[in-house]
């Protein structure tokens, strides 16, 4: 009962209405990787439970979204000179349309093929996508351009950018950056016109997507930057509270559950959990602080008093939400290599897509149990799993896969 109540609260914390079977944004309906679907596949491979697979023209790290009978995915060509939003039919993977945006300026990045890392987002009427320095674009579900913002500035960082847009009520919010020397700011625009509603500046940028949560009777946005995790009023952009303790290279998205917010830095950086009960500087309300840890790229899950996550080298972790004590204490990583994927929860399981294309499935339990590893030989991926209406979607460098149970 507690778990279902938690998921119900998460589903109602967003300002837009979503269908339970859709996956409308980065990390799904809740922004935290939760799926409420039943009879979700446990096992698949390149020859088992394959609904379809299609070839992709270019590599990419972004995760697809799904609304109704359509799948939306971004990609860019080498050096990011053309950045695209693609729409596929979920039934068979047929490409329905593709909108290309040319960009002839230089933009620093870690890899010449990775210029579209952000997921699109949709409310069922429009699809909004961030294409990095090329801007933010809004289309209807048939691909007609509704508005664009090409005045957001160049985002200049050696590791590129990754934050996805978030639809909240009548707003679209986008964490703009990171910039080594330029501006880092959280932007809110009117979702129908693209006009600016408010801006919130920060000294330092990060890569994680902000998270909308319900705290008490009000909504707020969790923004993880350096050195603090912050709460932002989604209607005004006003800073509500701040909790110090993060270090540079914040790749993950914030997590939330049971009135507690969790944020994690990467590259051997710090992690923290804080009870949300005040305003201003709430650093003294931290429940725990891990000052130096491990490399984290993918985001975790908060569920039933535990924090689950997997470090980049493939070692899974479970921490007590209140004390920060490690529960699983896994000494060696399961076979499967490294991961940049964020966890997805369904039916008591935690799914993590690995960089070699395989997916590891764990029991969402304080007792460690690896349930299965689903392999896709000769594939590579930096994306995350998607669950929608009985289907599982996996984006690799080479293909978009749909897995579904045989009927």
UniProtKB/TrEMBL annotation:
<dbReference type="InterPro" id="IPR011047">
    <property type="entry name" value="Quinoprotein_ADH-like_sf"/>
</dbReference>
<dbReference type="InterPro" id="IPR015943">
    <property type="entry name" value="WD40/YVTN_repeat-like_dom_sf"/>
</dbReference>
<protein>
    <submittedName>
        <fullName>Outer membrane biogenesis protein BamB</fullName>
    </submittedName>
</protein>
<feature type="domain" description="Pyrrolo-quinoline quinone repeat">
    <location>
        <begin position="85"/>
        <end position="329"/>
    </location>
</feature>
<dbReference type="Pfam" id="PF13360">
    <property type="entry name" value="PQQ_2"/>
</dbReference>
<keyword id="KW-0732">Signal</keyword>
<dbReference type="InterPro" id="IPR002372">
    <property type="entry name" value="PQQ_rpt_dom"/>
</dbReference>
<feature type="signal peptide">
    <location>
        <begin position="1"/>
        <end position="20"/>
    </location>
</feature>
